[in-house]
Amino acid sequence: MADIRHFFQDSPFRLHVGLLLLLIVGCIGLLLPWFAPVDPLEWYTAPRNQAASAAHVLGTTSLGQDIFWLLTWAVRNSLILGLVVAFFSTLIGVFLGLTAGYVGGAADRFLSFLMDALICIPTLPILILLAALFGGQLGLTAAGVALVLFNWPFPGRQVRAVALSMREREFVNVAWFSGESRTRILTRHIFPYLAGWSAANFINTVLVVIATESALAVIGLSSARQATIGTMIYWALEYQALLAKRYVWIGAPVLAIVLLFVGLFLVSSGLAMRSSDRRMSV
Prior knowledge:
The protein is mostly helical and 282 residues long. It is built from 11 helices and no strands. The protein has a single domain (58-249, 270-281), classed as Orthogonal Bundle (MetI-like fold), CATH 1.10.3720. The protein is elongated and about 70 Å long.
């Protein structure tokens, strides 16, 4: 029993299962949309409320949209939003965190104050306020910019703490007295210790971004004309898919987001475990 438990808690197992799930979701969202016969966002391009068939694999919606092709576009847009926001949030957070922790002084005090101030502000109410300012139709670009603004302080705060401890290490002092620049010390001597953690944080940020956008869309404050997992659930709820027993319409995006979240979680935890094992071995 202990061996089985250890197998499921092993970081390679988590990584492999997580990567397999992400590969499935990635194929649905990044590859299949290119083969859509028509624009899935257009209404009444197919017969309404059709059950699954050879012509429509998952059936159609009350708006005359093919559920399968609509799902591929929804997953694609949600993935792109999550990846772009996570990339810029992690990049900005790691850079400013390293700068604050290693340089210290006034730069550290200012950046620490900025990070603490942004962390204290709840993201979802701000997005709801922005959506109200945009007339209840917050686009993906505006939502992405706001999410980057409020997500970079989390990795920045943690990277700063690591940089504060590592700048006192002997090899960093040796590099400094050898005449290496601050940029070279940060990129070649300190950042490698944070690479695994940065990858795990990147994946966690993708999770947060997709969950936040989906929550905003489900309550009707995201742009309903842009296909995301959240807006697909919104339209299914709007047309009473559950009461009408059209379970595939609302079940397909829910299953997609569950597979995506489980895959991202397994990859993130696997990377974190591997990074922790490497630090312990060092």
